[in-house]
Amino acid sequence: MSVNDLALGVPPVDTGTLARELVSGLMLRPWGEVSASVYETGRVVALAPWLTGHAERVDYLLARQRTDGAWGAPDGYELVPTLSATEALLSRLRHAGDASLSEPVTRGLLALSRVLSASGGLSLPDTPAVELVVPSLIALIEDHLREAPDLGLPSVRLAVPPGMDAARLARLRGALRSGADVPQKLLHALEVAGEAACHAPGLVPTAIGTVGASPAAAAAWLGDRAGWSDRSVHPRHPLVRRHLEAVARRYGGPVPVGLPITFFERSWVLSWLARAGVPFDAPPEMVADLCVTVGQEGTAAGAGLPPDADTTSVVLYALALLGVRLEPESLLAYESETCFHTWPGEQGFSTSVNAHVLDAFGAYVERHPEAAGRYEGRMVKLARLLRDHQQADGSWSDRWHASPYYATVSCALALHEFGGADSAAAVRRAVRWVLGTQHEDGSWGRWTGTREETAYALQILLMTGSGEDERRAAAAARGYLFLTRSAGTEDPALWHDKDLYLPGAVVRAAVLASCHMARRDPAVLAAIQRSHNPVRKQ
């Protein structure tokens, strides 16, 4: 069914053309598209003041300080970026004597004192390496204040939150100094190791110069510029330096929290679009590259990161939708008695990871029924697990995203497609939750309405077809109008890393997918038409 956008009072949207441009653009930026990060930029300011774009990084931090002195999002998300930015500016104030930084540092210290004094009653987000990042930064700030008492800064006590201490940091630093093996995922936060990170024995940067796919980790591995003449004996020192400089130039000074995210980005974009039926052609070389990445241990999000179940699942699911037969047996390495973990042997649990594993198994079995015997039992276990983790209001939450709409779209779609009849009630509860949480302007969002979260809500309404038809169509119509009228607005960072980040291409793909489905749903189009041509009272 075609849509006359102008007649409906919305800007014209050619989702097919936009999708093809988005997919082809992925090949032009092979490292991926990730927003700049306050946390990561602060670490590079402190660790690598010699790096290209230092002044721009300082300006970036100053421009993003909130009126209350903190940085970042609310509900505990401000702690890590505020610690990083405050320590970075304090370091510059102390070592470069830049008196203009005294006021923002003071405001940052007071904000930290408020946040940390309440941390006993505040549930901190489960962001990667938070238990290492927080105590390491508190120790650095306390060292600055103790060693430079003449800066005229307020005397504050920064209490380490309950459950965090320096013991794990000490073990990590000792292991790095001795050359012992450390989990590869910890290299993403190598900066917490301090001086022990510099050319750590046994730690070899990737062939493209990344260290843990993190600019801060790369800066920590490079160490102080003054020692380059001695330390550059490491054969990959110049390579890491060039990579870090390339990242800084690409972003004009500030840096992202994780780069590259090549395979994470490509698989998510392709899966969003293909699942929604958006017409596009996947470049053959992109599909071939994704196939090659799936080894016995699965796929990593990008160079410098370890393979993980989430990226592996989404790669396998996207390839299945594109007609590529690739058995999902590599995911079995992540299975425990109770669930599938993001990394083998970890203790953490993620609803979205398990939902994506269900997607991967389900898409494969659907296309290759002869494999049902190996995966159907696991699919039943996954579906039961997801249903058990649904909250009373019908939503889900997750450790990899700040918004419940992300976790809920992941779980609701997986259960709807591959969870069997026993999951129908859970999907209906998710739909009712979405219908009950829409904002007045037609958007959805945890803190305020966003395009990303609205896209996820629309996918739940449009892909599950789970009752509430008239109300569902009216809500989807309002959501679609919000997306079209807010085109071009900046999307906030909602994805979990050491700091919140925005994978721009992934979010645009989700929005395009939702718009495409809305434009092809007769009930939604009729609801849009009614909203522009209301029946007049006699």
Describe this structure in words.
The protein has 538 residues and is mostly helical. 52% of the residues lie in helices and 1% in strands. The protein contains 21 helices and 4 strands. The protein has helices at 15-26, 38-47, 54-63, 79-96, 102-117, 130-147, 167-178, 215-222, 228-231, 237-250, 262-276, 284-293, 309-321, 351-367, 372-388, 404-418, 424-436, 451-464, 469-485, 504-519, 522-532; strands at residues 299-300, 307-308, 495-496, 500-501. A hairpin with a 6-residue loop joins strand 1 and strand 2 (307-308).
What is shown here, in short?
With 538 residues, the protein is mainly α.
Helix content: 40-55%
Summing up helix and strand content along with how strands pair, one would put the structural category as: mainly alpha
The major sheet is characterized as: 2 strands, antiparallel
Question: What's the number of helices?
Answer: 21
Cα separation of the termini: 32 Å
What labels would you give this structure?
538 residues; 4 strands; 21 helices
Secondary-structure blueprint of this entry?
Elements: H1 15-26, H2 38-47, H3 54-63, H4 79-96, H5 102-117, H6 130-147, H7 167-178, H8 215-222, H9 228-231, H10 237-250, H11 262-276, H12 284-293, E1 299-300, E2 307-308, H13 309-321, H14 351-367, H15 372-388, H16 404-418, H17 424-436, H18 451-464, H19 469-485, E3 495-496, E4 500-501, H20 504-519, H21 522-532
Antiparallel strand pairs: 1-2, 3-4
Helix pairs in contact: 1-11, 1-20, 2-3, 2-4, 2-8, 4-5, 4-6, 8-10, 11-13, 11-20, 13-14, 14-15, 14-16, 15-16, 16-17, 16-18, 17-18, 18-19, 18-20, 19-20, 19-21
